[in-house]
């Protein structure tokens, strides 16, 4: 029986990375606890199904007034934290993956033949050209 009060791993955020890590770890027999700041979302949360409505993601991101993201310009020695809204941050299970716009790069031949450009096999990895 899993011990939820003393997990093997703690993961912060149930987005694409955190959820994937949790799955891999639990499949290998580890106990995992995920801390997620937001709640679950469902299809109704994304209505109207209109890309213009969600163009700037204001309907999904934490707003500056109630949950600001702090930014400090580290290139400026006297910089002070500034409250900002960041479209790539959401407080929901699944994280910002839920607002992914599906903008994909247009791949070229060299992207599909990565092994051609390696000096040799990568130790501990199985690599093939994709797709």
Structure description:
The chain is mostly loops and 131 residues long. The chain has 1 helix and 4 strands. The strands form 2 sheets. A two-stranded parallel ribbon has the order 1-2. Strands 3-4 form a two-stranded antiparallel ribbon. 4% of the residues are buried.
Structure described in brief:
By secondary structure, this protein is low in regular secondary structure. The chain is built from one helix and four strands; from the N terminus they run E-H-E-E-E. The longest helix has 12 residues, at 16-27.
Radius of gyration: 20 Å
Largest sheet: 2 strands, parallel
Strand order across the largest sheet: 1-2
Structural category:
little secondary structure
Averaged pLDDT, please? 80
| Low confidence ranges | none
Distance between the termini: 41 Å
Q: How large a portion of the residues is in β-strands, by DSSP E?
A: 5-15%
Helix content range: under 10%
Q: State the helix count.
A: 1
Strand tally, please? Answer: 4
Shape, principal axes of CA atoms: extended
Order of helices and strands: EHEEE
SSE inventory with pairings:
Elements: E1 9-12, H1 16-27, E2 32-35, E3 69-71, E4 82-84
Parallel strand pairs: 1-2
Antiparallel strand pairs: 3-4
